[in-house]
C-alpha cells in the first residue's frame, strides 16, 4: 500500500475499487490513482470536524453531543478527500470510547453497502461532496493533559476524560486517566457524576452518603467507581482511597 509499485499490480489486475478500513498506513499517491473507480476510507468520525486519530476519544473528551462515521474518497493528504456517504448520531452519557467505536462500525457497514451498490452500477453515482476546510480539524496522537486528570476542571470534564479513555476490556490508545495519591500513581477506570455542588479544594477525597468515595472538582463532587494502582494495572489491584486523601496531578 505504501509502495508505488503496488499501483502496477492494481492496474494489471483491473481493480475497480480499493477500500481502506482501520489502516494507519498513508497510501502512496500512485496507488490512490490506480483503481478504476477510486480509493475509499471508512473513517470513524464526522468529517470535516474530526479528521485524524482516536477521534471517538476526542469527541467524548470535548463533550460532543453527536458523532458520525464517514466513507470518503481518499486523497494524498490524510482525511482530506470528498465525502461519499456519512451518518451522524447522538452520543449519550453511557457511551465510552469502545461503545462509540462500535457504533461507528455498526453504522458504517450500511454506508459501505451503499458504496458497493453504486460501484456495481459503474461508480458514476458515488457522491463527491467537497469538505468545508474552514471546519476541518486534524487530531494527532496527543493525549489531553498527558493523561493526567485535572481535578481543577469541572466534574463533567473529568467524567468525559475517563469515558474517552475507556476501551475496556481492550487496551486504550490513551491509557487510563492518572492521578497522584501521595507517592503512588493511580489509574481511574470509572467515575460517575453526582450533581452535588462542592466548595472543597479540587482533588480532595471525601466519603459519600452512599458509602462510596467522592472527589472534589471545580464545581461538583464526582464519585470514584473503580480505581487501580497504575503500576499493577494488568493485575487489577484496587488502590486504597480514604476520606481526607488528596488526588493531584504530577
Q: Could you outline the blueprint of secondary structure elements for this entry?
A:
Elements: H1 6-12, E1 17-21, H2 29-33, E2 38-43, E3 51-52, H3 55-61, E4 66-73, E5 83-90, H4 97-120, E6 138-139, H5 155-164, E7 178-181, E8 184-197, E9 205-207, E10 213-216, E11 220-229, E12 247-248
Parallel strand pairs: 1-2, 3-6
Antiparallel strand pairs: 2-4, 4-5, 7-8, 7-12, 8-11, 9-10, 10-11
Provide a brief overview of the structure.
By secondary structure, this protein is of the alpha+beta class.
Please, could you describe this protein's structure?
With 250 residues, the protein is an alpha+beta fold. The protein has 2 domains: 6-139, Formyl transferase, N-terminal domain (Rossmann fold), CATH 3.40.50.170; 144-248, Formyl transferase, C-terminal domain (Methionyl-tRNA Fmet Formyltransferase, Chain A, domain 2, Roll). Helix content is 21%, strand content 27%. The protein is built from 5 helices and 12 strands. The protein has a 6-stranded antiparallel beta sheet with strand order 9-10-11-8-7-12. Strands 1-2-4-5 form a 4-stranded mixed beta sheet, with helices on one face. It is elongated and about 70 Å long.
First CA to last CA: what distance?
41 Å
Overall outline: elongated
Helix and strand run: HEHEEHEEHEHEEEEEE
Q: Would you count the extended β strands for me?
A: 12
The total domain count is: 2
* Cα gyration radius (Å): 22 Å
CATH architecture of the largest domain: 3-Layer(aba) Sandwich
